């Protein structure tokens, strides 16, 4: 048993069997390329006998991903086949152009499957196993064999089937818990029994393929690996039949995070996990649940005040891995009713507000009242709280008029009329890729600021076709406009500013939000900081 665990990804085969998860050939190819970048050892590209489209997709992946063109690592490309000659020929037809092809054939070995599904005796299953593996080996040098429903099979009979498969030439023996029935201790014992009792087992790699019907797929897979398996069959986001398969990200990060226990490694570039997860979610339309391990939106988010305080002092207090290890954004301290003063203070400082203890206490009290009314408090909410409680922004420019022309018959154009300092009037027209882009370009041309739009969100805040549209934006600027001409200059201090606008015309709301953010930026340019009021006296903070 070596220290390397092969990752066999079946997102494109078992994962695609999730109801509603069907992908086009082009999408499958993109996922396969992503899996190659991720560093998986084997890509099970599909079930070629299932349909002409599936066969074509496997062939395309074998030709384009299964061959090195730029020196990248080449994964094994695998096709699934039932234990019959027709399926095996189709599987070979699908993968034969790959540099490293594999045929994966299977037959059920549990009594319930043999009696009710196959209607075959044990002797017939043994004969079919020998026949199928022998034929597959005559076509392809790398053959994997699976005894379907191994988790509910009689161990003594399972050992016999595996010995026949090894003798016929199978190089990988996959042990599937097809219906997610076993417990971790049972599945670990099953793999240990195979290692101990199957003759010739040293000639093959033991693989595990677990389903999640009882929520134990990852636990069973890790138990199997600890007992001697050296290939794990997984899917991204854990998608698959019924409750899904073992999740790639959970197995890989489990081995990586607890290396002191397992002493094993994989070839996975973990920094690509989040990108791969999002691609599969987008293509299949299956959303990742927020509390999903490793790749869920909340996996690196903290709301409880005690947790947030610990995280701010040392991340190891509540995180066993860093988000950048899996390619995720930085840890998010979600501000809500459970958050404390420490987290609120840190977030306000990130937004550019340096408050004294009295100001912070005022904001904290209003923050708690707001957090009781909504699930989470956004940066825009914090901007509004500070503005309403302490900060009186100076409006350098206001929107006096706006006209937009857009559609399919011409270039999107916007003309804006702004009122500036000393009641000066500024009118400018600009062309953009859309009406909002044109609006923002026209405003930028008048104000001549050095800002970059970082976030833009829009939604209706009332019901009906005449609903009021609410727009929030975040922009990034540079304190010194001269330094914006040289972004490499180390002394440049980047700041972010939020803006909010509401109107029944979403273009007008967008312009208001953008101007609100820029006015805050200009206030800092003029004053060097945001002006706060306390007891009627202005303070620079």
Number of helices: 17
The first-level CATH class name of the largest domain: Alpha Beta
- How much of the sequence lies in strands comes to 15-25%
Query: Any idea how many domains?
Result: 3
Strand order of the largest sheet: 1-2-3-4-5-6-7-8
Distance between the termini: 63 Å
Question: What is the CATH superfamily label of the largest domain?
Answer: Aldolase class I
| CATH-scheme architecture of the largest domain | Alpha-Beta Barrel
Q: Given the helix and strand composition, which structural class is it?
A: alpha/beta
Largest sheet: 8 strands, parallel, barrel
What does this structure look like?
The protein is of the alpha/beta class. The chain has 3 domains: 6-284, Alpha-Beta Barrel (TIM Barrel); 301-389, no CATH class; 398-540, Alpha-isopropylmalate synthase LeuA, regulatory domain (Double Stranded RNA Binding Domain). The protein is 38% helix and 20% strand. It has an 8-stranded parallel beta barrel with strand order 1-2-3-4-5-6-7-8, surrounded by 9 helices. Helix 1 runs antiparallel to helix 11 and helix 16 (435-447) runs parallel beside helix 17.
Could you give a quick summary of the protein structure above?
Helix 1 runs parallel beside helix 2. It contains 17 helices and 18 strands. The strands form five sheets. An eight-stranded parallel beta barrel has the order 1-2-3-4-5-6-7-8, surrounded by nine helices. It has a three-stranded antiparallel beta sheet with strand order 11-12-13.
């Amino acid at each position: 048993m070596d220290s390397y665990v092969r990752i066999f990804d079946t997102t494109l085969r078992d994962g695609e069997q999730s109801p509603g998860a069907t992908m086009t050939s082009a999408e499958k190819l993109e996922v396969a390329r992503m899996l190659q970048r991720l560093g998986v050892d084997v890509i099970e590209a599909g079930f070629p006998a299932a349909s002409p489209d599936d066969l074509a997709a496997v062939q395309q992946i074998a030709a384009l991903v299964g061959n090195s063109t730029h020196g990248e690592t080449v994964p094994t490309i695998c096709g699934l086949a039932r234990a019959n000659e027709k399926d095996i020929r189709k599987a070979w037809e699908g993968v034969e152009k790959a540099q490293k092809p594999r045929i994966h054939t299977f037959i059920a070995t549990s009594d319930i499957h043999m009696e009710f599904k196959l209607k075959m005796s044990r002797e017939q299953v043994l004969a079919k196993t020998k026949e199928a593996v022998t034929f597959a080996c005559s076509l392809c040098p790398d053959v994997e064999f699976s005894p379907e429903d191994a988790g509910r099979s009689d161990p003594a009979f399972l050992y016999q089937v595996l010995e026949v498969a090894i003798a016929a030439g199978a190089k990988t023996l996959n042990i599937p818990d097809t219906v997610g029935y076993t417990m971790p201790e049972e599945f670990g014992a099953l793999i240990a029994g195979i290692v101990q009792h199957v003759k010739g087992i040293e000639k093959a790699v033991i693989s595990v393929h677990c389903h999640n019907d009882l929520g134990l797929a990852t636990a069973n897979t890790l138990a199997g690996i600890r007992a001697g398996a050296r290939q794990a069959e997984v899917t991204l986001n854990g998608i698959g039949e019924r409750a899904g398969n073992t999740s790639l990200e959970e197995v890989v990060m489990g081995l990586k995070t607890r290396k002191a226990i397992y002493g094993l490694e994989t070839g996975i570039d973990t920094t690509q996990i989040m990108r791969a997860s999002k691609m599969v979610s987008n293509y299949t339309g299956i959303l990742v649940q927020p509390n999903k391990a490793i790749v869920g939106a909340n996996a690196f988010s903290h709301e409880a005040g005690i947790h947030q305080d610990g995280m701010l002092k040392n991340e190891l207090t509540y995180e066993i891995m860093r988000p950048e290890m899996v390619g995720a954004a930085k840890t998010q301290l979600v501000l809500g009713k459970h958050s404390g003063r420490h987290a609120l203070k840190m977030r306000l400082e990130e937004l550019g507000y340096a408050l004294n203890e009295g100001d912070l206490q005022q904001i904290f009290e209003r923050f708690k009242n707001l957090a009781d009314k909504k699930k989470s408090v956004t940066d825009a909410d914090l901007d509004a709280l500070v503005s309403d409680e302490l900060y009186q922004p100076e409006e350098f420019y206001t929107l006096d008029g706006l006209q937009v022309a857009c559609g399919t018959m011409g270039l999107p154009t916007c003309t804006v009329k702004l009122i500036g300092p000393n009641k000066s009037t500024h009118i400018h027209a600009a062309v953009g890729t859309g009406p909002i882009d044109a609006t923002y370009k026209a405003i930028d041309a008048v104000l001549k600021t050095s800002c970059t739009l970082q976030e833009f969100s829009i939604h209706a805040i009332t019901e009906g076709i005449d609903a009021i549209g609410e727009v929030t934006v975040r922009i990034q600027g540079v304190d010194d406009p001269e330094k914006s001409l040289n972004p490499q200059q180390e002394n440049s201090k980047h700041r972010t500013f939020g803006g909010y606008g509401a109107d029944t015309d979403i273009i007008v709301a967008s312009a208001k939000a953008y101007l609100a953010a820029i006015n805050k930026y200009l206030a800092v340019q003029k004053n060097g900081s945001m002006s706060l009021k306390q007891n009627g006296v202005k303070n620079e903070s």
